[in-house]
Amino acid sequence: MNVHILQHVPFEGIGSMEPWLRKRAANITSTRFFESWTLPDLSHLDLVIAMGGPMSVNDEAELPWLVEEKAFIRTAIAQGVPVLGICLGAQLIASALGARVYAGRQREIGWFEIEAVPQAGGAFTFPPSTTVFHWHGETFDLPAGAVHLARSAACAHQAFQIGRNVIGLQFHLETTPESAEAIITHCREELVADTFVQTEAALRAVPPVAYERINALMGEVLSYLLRAVV
After folding, report:
1. pLDDT at 79
2. Among 116, 148, 150, 191, whose Cα sits 20 to 30 Å from the Cα of 128?
3. Active-site residue, 136 included
4. pLDDT grade, residue 119 (50/70/90)?
5. 8 vs 171: CA distance, rounded Å
6. Annotated catalytic residue: which of 4, 12, 87, 108?
7. Which residues contact 37 (CB under 8 A, 6 or more apart)?
């Protein structure tokens, strides 16, 4: 199984997904856009994972590699390669498919509940409600043909699916205590008091069981996307 990671900043890695994939003998490669823009041949890939980052998908003038990354994602989807987008990655999928990405009504940073959107037809199903880790200020319109999977009080579009092999998550299920500490350290200036922004102390007080729960759900998402491979 060949998995390729699209990584945008050094401090946002794949978290709990790495041991999950390693346990299944995955060969993991990556494009680290902060070092190189080199992208692989899609014909050899079983999954593409687009990770998060503090930039905007609209920053193409300042970050021209975004143009190439969106084209790569668009081609992967067209060729039927499974694609998972997390936070910025979900926004990249939306933008690559022509949907608008823009500032949300408010930032959503911390552990907040999402609610599953009832749907049918074999799409991935989230628990009716569950608390997950968020760190985002932008949101997106759903791409054409997308199935809306989840919403929250702060953000209507929390998760979507396209066909059987593309899922975008605005929130982070891969977060571990170590990766949460990394993003707090590098992005603490965003922790400005607001309705849906938790304090640094509150973020650090989250018990291990909360991470275990979201990591298990991350495994379910990966199993769904890789059902033909795993």
Report:
1. 97
2. 191
3. no
4. confident
5. 16
6. 87
7. 31, 65, 68
